[in-house]
Amino acid sequence: MAATPAPPKAPPKPTWDPRKPEPPFPWLRPTIRIRLTLLYGGMFLIAGILLLSIIYLLAAQAIHEGSGQSFQISGSGVTIRSDTCPELNNATTDDARNAALKACNDALKQHALDGLLSRSLLALLGLAVIAFAFGYAMAGRVLTPLGRITRTARAVAGSDLSRRIELDGPDDELKELADTLDDMLERLERAFTAQQRFVGNASHELRTPLAINRTLLEVHLSDPNAPMELQQLGKTLLATNERSEQLVEGLLLLARSDNQIVERKPVDLAEVASQAVDQVHAEAEAKGVEIRGERAPAVVQGNGVLLERIALNLVQNAVRYNVPENGWVEVATEFQHGQAVLVVANTGPVVPAYEIDNLFEPFRRLRTERTGSDKGVGLGLSIARSVARAHGGHIAARPREGGGLVMRVTLPT
User: Which residue numbers delimit the HAMP domain (predicted)?
Assistant: First the structure.
């Protein structure tokens, strides 16, 4: 028997979240502008130190060579007075005068060199400040196109593929990069729009025959004289047709929810979650699953119908994929760190951590309890993730200790 091929791996998660808040001190980040400034200023500082060292050595050599001649004082009645070298005033002998004169000459040379060094260091410090400021300004001017490219990339990452960089200026490497990115964004927008149009058109086209099939089956099932075998076959076909309709509706909703939400209204996640719980309450009672949890007010700006779809899909999955006895589902909403949070946790089968990413892929289920065709069409979590992204939020899942999952939806307010 041929081995079953392994399912394709889920795509890697993005390492950068465009909705990630800015750090509290953005000027402390090691940005390219700061690094270029440090590079320019550091190179100037090193060159200035080398130049100052060379000037100091040359000046010391010149002073030494210029004062290399020795002076000898001899004779009687010689009086030398100096305010700079008071030792000469107290010298009474020729040897003392000569020694004091030599010491005074050396002290004057050292004083001149020290003065040259201190003034040069002050000048170097001032020029270094000017160099760093000039380097920072020039780096900002050079990197302005990169900032524009980054802002456009952030907008595109937020599902706005219509944005373009449209960089003007000289035809340099940065403009070439911007034009290349614009061409890539245009191709991506065409491909993405064509894909959505295809899914939408296909879903609409499939609705009509499925609706006709459902009507015909319901008409035949309403006939009281129909044989029992025919009625059983009609019920089976009607259930299959209903599942196909759910699949089409899911595909249409998935294609629609991938777009950015334009019209937003205040929506309370607590109310949305409560409505989802009310819709699933009968199914939960039939399966013996308890639904609990505190739902605090958490208002977001978004589409109420799509947000209700998130809550409904998560609660339905939590009820359907639960333990046979004494199962529970906890549905909670809260306002945390400036964001609205919806948490749905449930008891259920043990879910391996490496299977978590696969659950959000369309038509993907676990290999065990989630393979039953009567539990859904495999689009619930995909739709929930697409709706969350369209609202600028995200959804994450983690295995619960003892079995089941903890689904956490975070949406900006």
Answer: 140-193
> How far is Cα 276 from Cα 285, in angstroms, rounded to an integer?
14
176-257 is classed in which CATH architecture? Answer: Orthogonal Bundle (1.10)
Q: How far is CA 151 from CA 27, 34, 146, 147, in A?
A: 18, 19, 9, 6
Report long-range pairs for 57-61 (Cβ below 8 Å, ≥24 apart): 59/113, 59/116, 60/113
* Residue 146 structure tokens: 């990169």
**Bridge-partner residues for 343, per DSSP?**
332, 408
Q: How far apart are CA 225 and CA 87, in angstroms?
A: 138
Give the residue ranges of DSSP H helices in 291-353.
Answer: 304-320
pLDDT at 89: 60
Residue with tokens 């593929």: 161
CA distance 129 to 352: 58
List of E strands, 146-268? 265-268
CATH code reported for the domain at 265-412: 3.30.565.10
Per residue in 324-369, pLDDT tens? 888 999 999 998 888 999 999 999 988 888 888 888 877 666 554 4
Q: What is the CA radius of gyration of the chain?
A: 40
CA atoms of 177 and 181, how far apart (whole Å): 6
**Are 283 and 324 within 8 A, CB to CB?**
no
Angle between helices 173-221 and 94-157 (to 10 degrees): 30
Element (H, E) at 122: helix 94-157
**Which segments within 239-326 are labelled E, that is strand?**
265-268, 289-292, 299-302
Positive or negative torsion for Cα 183, 189, 190, 192: positive
Question: How far is residue 148's CA from residue 142's CA, in Å, rounded to a whole number?
Answer: 12
Among 108, 79, 110, 106, smallest CA distance to 92 is for 79
pLDDT band, residue 408 (cuts 50/70/90): very high
| In the chain, where the domains are located | 27-157, 176-257, 265-412
Q: Are 231 and 219 in contact (CB under 8 A)?
A: no
Q: Given this model, what pLDDT does residue 318 score?
A: 92
Alpha carbon distance 41, 35 (integer Å) = 10
Q: For position 19, what pLDDT does the model report?
A: 45
Comparing 88-102, 179-193, 307-321, which segment has the lowest mean pLDDT? 88-102
Whether 383 and 257 have beta carbons less than 8 Å apart is answered as: yes
Q: What local confidence, expressed as pLDDT, does residue 364 receive?
A: 63
Q: Can you tell me the distance from the alpha carbon of 185 to that of 191, in angstroms, rounded to the nearest whole number?
A: 10
